[in-house]
Design brief:
Pfam families: Mito_carr. Keywords: Membrane, Mitochondrion, Mitochondrion inner membrane, Repeat, Transmembrane, Transmembrane helix, Transport. The protein has about 300 residues and is an all-alpha fold. It is about 70% helix and about 5% strand. It has one domain: Alpha/alpha barrel (Mitochondrial carrier fold), CATH 1.50.40.10. α6 runs antiparallel to α8 and α7 packs antiparallel against α10. The longest helix is centred in the C-terminal third of the chain and has 35 residues. The two termini are about 25 Å apart.
Length: about 300
């Protein structure tokens, strides 16, 4: 395995951190649209969050994914790049030659499968911190009223408290609630992430240049992110609902039950709720991620070459 490189893991770390900073505000909007009610359009949702929670409302639950995104995206980019290189090495392909479509497919789908191991708990904590300020029906305090009223409850003090509460309530398996939906989202999602990026980069790069320019990486990464997140929206809705389920009460018994209940109560359109914000946030998030990844990778390789030359 002489083609195995640690640089991809390090560059993925940095890329993940930049994508969280860029994309978290719209990620909060997406989560509220998919799980909450009464927000209407994307624009109305943004206005309501700002009005009720100010600017800080868009950054709820950000600390945990920011800290953990380095590990998560380190695994994503490290697994994808090294798997793709290992497959090329096994097939005795010349180094530097563009990877085959089959190599990219296997590497991207394997990445999606492995990423759930780390991404599941991260997403669950993020979703629950984002959603816990939603109003919930309080029955106990409405005895003297004609009907229950809505109030806001904060169950979690922070990401660590959220994680420990879930484990205490549901056991270790509880942190992987929604993992089935996440696999169905991420396996095809990473296929529609890395493959469009790879081919768009190659198409945008002129023959006289060996490496794609920063602008080409930005464009290719942004388009790949918009495609991937846009098409992943139906399963993303199911995943978000399963992970948010249990903050105040539980009503879903699994992926199939969530799909059937959601369809029965809200129709087919519910699975496309947040598709515009998903595609919209997918562009800057992925553009920032791929650009940071490529620039970091090039900087490390350049430093290594200069160090070897001394």
């Amino acid at each position: 395995m002489e083609n195995f490189q640690i640089d991809d893991f390090i560059a993925g770390c940095l890329g993940g951190a930049s994508s969280v900073i860029v994309g978290h505000p719209l990620d909060t909007v997406k989560a509220r649209l998919q799980v909450g009610k009464g927000y209407g359009s994307t624009f109305n949702c943004i206005l309501k969050i700002y009005k009720n929670e100010s600017v800080s409302g868009f950054f709820k639950g950000m600390s945990f994914p920011l800290m953990s995104s380095s590990l998560y995206n380190s695994v994503v980019f490290g697994v994808f790049s090294n798997t793709q290189r290992l497959l090329s090495e096994r097939c005795n392909r010349t180094t530097g030659v563009s990877p085959s479509f089959l190599d990219l497919t296997v590497a991207s789908m394997l990445t999606g499968l492995i990423s759930v191991g780390i991404g599941g708990p991260v997403d669950l904590v993020k979703i629950r911190l984002q959603m816990q300020t939603l109003p919930v029906i309080s029955v106990a305090n409405s005895i003297s009223h004609k009907s229950p009223f809505l109030q806001s409850q904060c169950m979690y003090k922070g990401p660590i408290h959220c994680l420990s509460s879930v484990i205490r309530q549901d056991g270790f398996v509880g942190v992987y609630r929604g993992a089935g939906a996440m696999i169905l989202r991420d396996v095809p999602g990473y296929f529609l992430y890395f493959i469009p990026y790879t081919y768009l980069c190659a198409w945008l790069t002129e023959d006289c240049h060996k490496e794609p320019s920063a602008s080409n990486v930005w464009i290719a990464g942004g388009i790949a992110g918009a495609i991937s997140w846009g098409t992943a929206t139906p399963m993303d809705v199911v995943k978000s609902r399963l992970q948010a389920d249990g903050v105040h009460c539980k009503k879903y018994n699994g992926v199939t039950d969530c799909i059937l209940q959601s369809y029965h109560n809200e129709g087919i359109k519910v699975f496309f709720r947040g598709i515009s914000v998903n595609a919209l946030r997918g562009f800057p998030m992925s553009a920032a991620m791929f650009l940071t990844y490529e620039l970091s990778l090039n900087a490390m390789r350049k430093t290594k070459v200069e160090s070897d030359a001394r």
